[in-house]
What we know:
alpha+beta; 4 helices
Amino acid sequence: MGMGTKVGVWIVCGGAGVALGLVLPWVLQHLSTWPIPYLDVLTFLGSFEHPVMVIGRPAVLGLVGLICAFAITSQSAELTLSAERIQIREGDDAREIARENVGGVYRHGSKVRIESVAGRVLFDDDVEGGREVIAAAFTRHGYPWESVHTRTKGESK
C-alpha cells in the first residue's frame, strides 16, 4: 500500500466515524421504534443533546475510525517483485523469497498464496489490486501463476 492509499484509508475511516457520530442520534431514535431488545437504552443514548455530546460523539467516533484505519494500513503486506526475488514487508518486518524457491502463485478470494516447490506456504495474505493486475505483475517477472477459473452465471460446465 502506497502512502497515498494509506492516507485515503485514514481519511475514509476517520470521516466514516465522524459521520456516524453525527447521524447516531437520528439512527438510534429511528431504531427505537422497532421491536428490539434494550429499547429504553437506545432511546436514552439517542436523547443526549448536550454540547459536549454533540461535539464529542463525532470526535470520539472519528478517533475510533482512525485507530481502525491505522490498524488496517499497518498490518497490510507490501510486496516488491523482481525477477530474482519477492520482497515482503509487513510493518517493520521484512523478508525475501528467492525466485528458485517459488513453486506456484495463485489468488483465492482477496488473498494471494505463494507456495514453495515442495508445496509449503511461503505467503498467504491480502494483496491490493484486481485479479488481472496481480496475475500480470507476477507473470511479467516470470513467476508461475496458477490461474483458478471461476464460472460465471450462464456459463456451461
